[in-house]
Write a structure and sequence with these properties.
The chain is α/β, with parallel strands linked by helices. About 45% of the residues lie in helices and about 10% in strands. A 5-stranded mixed β-sheet has the order 2-1-3-10-4, sandwiched between helices.
Length: about 500
């Protein structure tokens, strides 16, 4: 899903996915990649090379067979090579390879959070011009739209094919909330999200009647995860936006409105402060209970999850890997684990912007892009086409645990049979249908850092929410205006 300490979630996800599918051992190919070479693979330079997740590299033989079973010619041999577990290191490596116009690797797995950086620089192949019309139609019409939007260039064409999505949800202790007098099944918590105010009351009531130390855990450290994901969700669920809604998420830089100083964004900061300090503290909102520890201000994904998995928290916002972790029999088990869409502050009808408000989930996940310098272009495109086939996507679920990008496959029987996570597919589907991408442009790395710093200042009390968001408004506006003439809007 997700600088130096950014994407802690992405580093984590590589490991936990391997645990999830019980893949054994580390891939020697990862060492080759870290050394900036792609050679030394099983079949030498004649093989097609795909840089991907260590989970896939650990299961290379099974993936090749799944591709052949789905119709790929057996004349095409795919070397499956592990990328670095750190997503920023992967991005840097791709930049070096593509800037040098190297022919290898042929296919690269790219984070949906930064694939647009390569698309906007015209460093990856235009798939709309090179894939069959039926394949691009399939991606356009059957895939989760938030994922597709992060694979599309400013000309509207596709430059990457979504490989698997990642959507956060709200995990909660179903057994404890029932003991506190609530009925999640009767109230359809699994599919019908609730407002943050009610959520805070549920968590506060449950915590008071239980022996747990924590109420609601989330991630608010100063890192990419705060700007791209947690605060993006809080803000959007309140009807706010970084740049005036979904239509201007990806630019044009300097021409889109900067809207972080608007009241819904400030209210989102105040609500989070209520969760941490209580509604009687300064710059908070009435009616929102104190349910979160101060520790959230230093937490990333795993530190926020650990107390929940150990039975010491009522709820946690986290990614799909957390469902598999918490639902394991040696942890909470599925009888105690409840999952719901992330709560909201206002409905979409109450928001100024279209499709903003209501239950939202930050978009994570990965795409495949083709190296335009590949000397095996036809074979690379054949692999991309084959990976879009439902039969392959059903197979890859069993091999890697990756959730399918195709909405119909996502809801298939095969996916619902995934151990633990399959029990909560409907909640994840709702998250996917309401996913919000980060506003990736060439200036997002600058903007993301400013957002994380100033949102954290507003949450911690180093600044008031209003002053922090007004300062952020000024800084984002300055970045946008300075770079408005840059290429790659």
């Amino acid at each position: 899903m997700h600088g130096g300490n950014t994407h802690t979630n992405a580093r984590r996800r590589s490991v936990t996915r391997r645990d999830f599918v019980k893949a054994a051992g580390a891939s020697g190919a990862a060492t080759a990649l870290a050394g900036c070479t792609v050679g030394g693979t099983e079949t030498g330079s004649g093989a097609l090379q795909w840089i991907t997740d260590p989970t896939a590299a650990d299961n290379a033989g099974k993936i090749r067979q799944a591709l052949w079973d789905a119709g790929l010619s057996k004349d095409v041999y795919l070397d499956v090579i592990a990328k670095p577990s750190d997503t920023d290191a992967t991005q840097s490596q791709y930049t070096r390879w593509l800037s040098a116009d190297l022919a290898d690797p042929d296919i690269m797995m790219m984070d949906s959070g930064w694939a647009l950086n390569f698309i906007n620089k015209a460093q990856v192949l235009n798939l709309s011009e090179n894939l069959s019309g039926s394949t691009t139609d399939l991606i356009e019409n059957k895939y989760f739209q938030a994922s597709v939007e992060t694979a599309r260039g400013s000309d509207g064409d596709l430059y990457a094919a979504p490989l698997f999505p990642d959507f956060p949800t709200m995990l909660y202790r179903k057994d404890l909330v029932k003991q506190a007098g609530y009925n999640p099944e009767q109230e359809n918590w699994a599919t019908e999200s609730m407002r943050w105010k009610k959520f805070s009351k549920v968590v506060a009531d449950t915590k008071r009647q239980s022996d747990v130390n924590y109420g609601f855990n989330f991630q608010a450290n100063i890192y990419e995860g705060l700007s791209c994901c947690d605060f993006n969700e809080f803000m959007t669920s309140w009807g706010g936006a970084y740049f005036g809604g979904r239509d201007t998420l990806f630019g044009p830089i300097g021409e889109r409105p900067v809207t972080v100083g608007d009241q819904p964004v400030v209210d989102a900061v105040k609500m989070i402060r209520s969760f941490i300090y209580g509604p009687d503290a300064p710059n908070t909102l009435d009616g929102y209970e104190q349910i979160s520890p101060n520790a959230v201000l230093s937490w990333t994904e795993n530190p926020s999850l650990n107390p929940f998995v150990n039975g010491n928290a009522v709820a946690v916002r986290n990614w799909p890997y957390a469902i598999a972790t918490a639902g394991a029999e040696e942890a909470l088990g599925t009888e105690k684990l409840g999952v719901m869409p992330i709560p909201y502050g206002v409905t979409q009808e109450e928001s100024e912007y279209e499709n903003i408000g209501g239950p939202v989930a930050a978009l994570g996940g990965w795409h495949n892009a083709v190296n335009p310098n590949s000397d095996q272009m036809e074979n690379a495109l054949a692999v991309i086409e084959t990976m879009t086939k439902p039969s392959f996507q059903r197979a890859i679920v069993e091999i890697t645990g990756w959730l399918p990008p195709n909405r119909e496959v996502f809801q298939s029987k095969k996916v619902k049979q995934i151990p633990i996570t399959g029990n909560y597919i409907e909640q994840l589907r709702i998250a996917g249908e309401n996913a919000i991408p980060r506003p990736v442009t060439v200036v997002w790395p600058q903007e993301s850092g400013k957002i994380a710093q100033l949102v954290h200042a507003g949450l911690s009390g180093d600044s008031t929410p209003k002053r922090a968001m007004n300062t952020l408004q000024e800084q984002l506006t300055a970045i946008e205006n300075f770079n408005s003439q840059s290429d790659g809007n």
